[in-house]
Amino acid sequence: MKQDDSMTALATMQQQMSGQFRLFLAALTVLSFGMISGAAIAQDETANSGSDAVMLVEKLHEGLEHLMMNGQTLGADGASDYISAVVDDTYNLPALTAQSIGPSAFRGYDAEQKVRVVAAYRAFVISNYLSRFGKPLPINFETVGHSEGPRGSTIVETQLVRKSGDPVQLVYVVATSKDGTTGIADVQYNGVSEAARRRSELSSLARQGADVLADALNKKAAQIAVDAE
């Protein structure tokens, strides 16, 4: 994709994003991602309050349950706007993105490239949620407990309860970055890290450059949306 086309596409994406996420992108550019050093979640991050972490995860679950119940009534645009706001409120998107593509590759991008990659990964996350939870399903979420995790993070243990079959164990890592951003930085499904799984798919693209990675993520998000129709 040519640079002019890339900037036009990015501008279109930013116009569609929630106000909160646009503010985040602006702040991200100014800070040049100085808060991410050495690893996606820095060693000296402050400890999260366990109850606050649980509230974030439960807010995500409540949003997904609302999407399942009302997604078809909201319509495609309404459902997308709704779950986009939920993701913005509950995820630490820079940390999640860095973990999912490889922290070293992410550190090598300049501020503008990081903005584009985070925006593209956000679109990918949202498309997956719309695809999986955009219609009524016989499931619900339950919180099991929480504990202190590495580097000041909080581990929130939950499960997805199905009408038939064993529950799916969902474990969330909630982290606070050095700039004060708190949110979900990883999800483990039955013991498998989603960020690690994505990293095995995306790390080679990430090494090819931010534009290649962002374009691939946006194409994946668009294809997921088409397949869900």
In terms of topology, how is this protein built?
Layout: H1 3-16, H2 19-31, H3 50-90, H4 93-101, H5 103-107, H6 111-133, E1 139-148, E2 154-162, E3 168-176, E4 182-189, E5 192-193, H7 194-207, H8 210-228
Antiparallel strand pairs: 1-2, 2-3, 3-4, 4-5
Helicity, as a percent range:
55-70%
Which strand order does the major sheet show? 1-2-3-4-5
Task: Specify the oligomeric state.
Answer: single chain
Please count the beta strands (DSSP E, at least 2 residues each): 5
Low-confidence stretches: 1-17, 22-48
Proportion of beta-strand residues: 15-25%
Class from secondary-structure proportions: alpha+beta
Mean pLDDT: 84
> What spatial form do the alpha-carbon principal axes imply?
globular
By DSSP (H or I, 4+ residues per run), the number of helices equals 8
Distance, first to last CA:
27 Å
The largest sheet, given as strand count, sense and whether it forms a barrel, is:
5 strands, antiparallel
Query: How would you spell out the order of helices and strands?
Result: HHHHHHEEEEEHH
The value of Rg in angstroms is 17 Å
Describe the protein in words.
- This protein is α+β, with helices and mostly antiparallel strands.
- Helices cover 60% and strands 17% of the residues.
- A hairpin with a 2-residue loop joins β4 and β5.
- α3 crosses α6 and α7 crosses α8.
- The longest helix has 41 residues.
- The protein is globular, with a radius of gyration of 17 Å.
Question: What attributes characterize this protein structure?
Answer:
alpha+beta; disordered N terminus; five-stranded antiparallel sheet; 229 residues
